[in-house]
Specification:
There is one protein chain. By secondary structure, this protein is mostly helical. Helix content is 73%, strand content 0%. The protein has 9 helices and no strands. It has helices at 2-40, 60-76, 90-106, 118-123, 125-150, 159-188, 190-193, 199-218, 223-235. The longest helix has 39 residues, at 2-40. The termini are far apart.
């Protein structure tokens, strides 16, 4: 009996640890766009063209610090133990996202002529900017995999699981749609033509809110949202 109690306590602590990390990742995803948007109302430069452009603003420390915090939490996330031969796992996707978001922070996008970071000085401004863009794509791509593949694993054995899966899939496709739209803007040159409207900033913020929502749901911190989707499903014929 004592052994069962110890095992149960260890399992409970593990669950709480998982939930805490998931909630932290979700909270940071909500925090960054909102903090940068709020700063835009009081800073002389106003709303920047993208989230990454805030590296060259008074919000640099907030931008870099939040991304590094996300990297730390993602690197520490173990997730569920993979099955034998499974290639797409919680740990691998979390580590990929962690390394990617750290590179986004440490290799800023092209901007004003200011002293370079250590990696920028080593690689040069051109390669640094390319790695920044690629890392941002990998970061959001890995988070979309969580939504569309990893979070929806398991049998839909009840209305709560079905509702949660619907939210995860919506978040995943929102991330992919947002990143695809940003890529289309860059390829067509519309990012420059539409720059006054700040489309990249809004699309990156949408992707960030989407992944934050998925992790918050997985961390059981958005119960009202899940219950709302459950109610909607119950009334759908």
């Amino acid at each position: 009996m004592a052994g069962d109690g110890i095992r149960q306590k260890a399992q409970n602590e593990l669950v709480l640890s998982f939930l805490s990390v998931r909630r932290a990742i979700g909270a940071l995803g909500f925090f960054l766009p909102l903090a940068l948007l709020a700063a835009s109302f009081v800073e002389a430069g106003g709303l920047r063209t993208s989230l990454s452009a805030y590296y060259y603003s008074p919000m640099r420390e907030v931008f870099v610090g939040t991304l590094i915090a996300q990297a730390v939490f993602l690197w520490s996330y173990e997730g569920f133990r993979p099955e034998a031969g499974e290639l797409i796992t919680d740990r691998r996707m979390a580590r990929l996202a962690a390394v990617s978001v750290a590179l986004v922070a440490l290799l800023p996008t092209a901007g004003p002529d200011i002293p370079c970071t250590a990696l920028q000085c080593l690689l040069g401004p051109g390669p640094s900017a390319l790695i920044h863009l690629a890392a941002a794509g990998l970061f959001f791509g890995a988070l979309a995999v969580f939504c569309l593949v990893l979070f929806v694993k398991g049998a839909e054995d009840g209305p709560e699981k079905r509702a949660s899966n619907r939210i995860y899939r919506l978040c995943g496709w929102t991330i992919l749609g947002s990143i695809g739209a940003i890529a289309a803007l860059f390829v067509t040159g519309l990012d420059q033509a539409l720059a006054p409207l700040r489309p990249v900033f809004w699309l990156e913020s949408l992707a960030s809110f989407a992944f934050a929502t998925s992790w918050a749901v997985k961390g059981d911190s958005l119960r009202p949202l899940v219950r709302g989707v459950m109610s909607a499903q119950a009334t759908t014929p």
